[in-house]
Amino acid sequence: MITTEAVALPNYRRIAEELRTQICANVLRPGHRLPSHQSLSRRFAVSRVTIRQALMLLQQRGYVQMIPKTGTFVSEMITSLRRTRHRLVALLVENCQDPFFNEMTQHIERELLRANLHMVLCDTAGAGPEVSYVDVLKDRVDGFIIAPSLQESSWTQYRALASTRLPYVLFDRDIRTIPGNRVLVDNYFGGRIAADHLADLGHSSFVTVTYRWPDRAHETPSEALRLRICGFKDRLIERGIPESDVMSLVGGGGRTKDAGAEAAMQWVNLRPRPTGLFATNDILCLGVIEVAEKSGLRMPRDFSIVGFDDINLVRWLNIPLTTVAQPKEEIARHVVGLLLTQNAEARGDHTQHELLKPRLVIRSSTGCAPKTAE
């Protein structure tokens, strides 16, 4: 029955609410295929555009899944949501204060709220390896969204999720020993577009800037960073730049401004000094820029630098940063969408990997190569 209050809603909202009620009452069961748009259009006496709006709203909230050229089906996750009282999803990230993860947290929470779900935020770095959020929360939440920590001691708890019936999705880091559906950014492509931009500006000598963890002095901390650097170098070599003209500098101390500054101290003392810089995240750029300014170098007159991530902070620098932007809102949509559409009866299949393209955002930190370089 449609109440008087519901009639006041826009048609697509009214139709979505009626279908949602049928789904929650188990009239429309998980996996059930809904009638065609044309049939629903006749039933509700509205246009097919209105029907599509209603179904898209239900899909955003996790009640149905629209499959092109196949049909619209009631989400399998509805079964697990009915069994729980809290409609909670745990988000596990390594450092909530990191600007990139802070922004991703906000986008993911918005997407969960649109699906009528609430978020529990867990900082895995602060807890230490002895704390297993999976064990603590697996009986209290409806699913997990995880940006895997670089600490291998925490990976066991993530692997254990594969044997549970809880849906979970991984994002940001591709740690291949952890099974799971995941949403990643094409880091290799990101490095390539950074290389093209600097080379197009006439730069002919280059430096990559990345970081290491204190306990991993001789290796790149993650596959994502390695791919960014490989993409950058490979593209320059394709363009005829000798490999010897692309240097790699590494700062210690992890994903921090200080790591960027440590790498920059090596760079400013080089002769000749490379003029095209690519850092594997935006935070490193802050350290590079600070050291450069103290050394009397001006950007982009004396050098150009490209970052990676496009955190909000870099838009408001005195000289805004050119950067490879991760599509944060799109990542959040895909992560939550994958979580909602996982089949409660087939959780063992964790093979769906979505690879999203980053884009270059050009600002004032890059310009034409100087006519002469030291």
The averaged pLDDT comes out at 86
CATH topology of the largest domain: Rossmann fold
Q: Label the CATH architecture of the largest domain.
A: 3-Layer(aba) Sandwich
CATH class of the largest domain: Alpha Beta
Q: Approximately how much helix is present in the residues? A: 25-40%
Number-wise, the strands total 14
Binned strand content: 15-25%
Topology pattern, helix = H, strand = E = HHHHEEHEHEHHEHEEHEHEHEHEEHEE
As for the number of domains, it is: 3
Describe the structure.
- This protein folds into 3 domains: 4-75, Orthogonal Bundle (Arc Repressor Mutant, subunit A), CATH 1.10.10.10; 85-185 and 328-357, Rossmann fold; 187-327, Response regulator (Rossmann fold), CATH 3.40.50.2300.
- It contains 14 helices and 14 strands.
- It has helices spanning 4-7, 11-24, 37-44, 48-60, 78-83, 99-114, 124-127, 133-137, 155-160, 187-200, 223-238, 257-268, 282-294, 328-341; strands at 64-67, 71-74, 88-93, 118-123, 143-146, 168-171, 181-185, 206-211, 246-251, 276-279, 304-309, 322-325, 353-356, 359-361.
- Helix 9 links the parallel strand 5 and strand 6.
Entry keywords:
single chain; 374 residues; Arc Repressor Mutant, subunit A; Rossmann fold; 3 domains; six-stranded parallel beta sheet; six-stranded mixed beta sheet; 14 strands; elongated; disordered N terminus
What is the fold's blueprint, element by element?
Layout: H1 4-7, H2 11-24, H3 37-44, H4 48-60, E1 64-67, E2 71-74, H5 78-83, E3 88-93, H6 99-114, E4 118-123, H7 124-127, H8 133-137, E5 143-146, H9 155-160, E6 168-171, E7 181-185, H10 187-200, E8 206-211, H11 223-238, E9 246-251, H12 257-268, E10 276-279, H13 282-294, E11 304-309, E12 322-325, H14 328-341, E13 353-356, E14 359-361
Parallel strand pairs: 3-4, 3-5, 5-6, 6-7, 7-13, 8-9, 8-10, 10-11, 11-12
Antiparallel strand pairs: 1-2, 12-14
Helix pairs in contact: 2-4, 3-4, 6-14, 10-11, 12-13
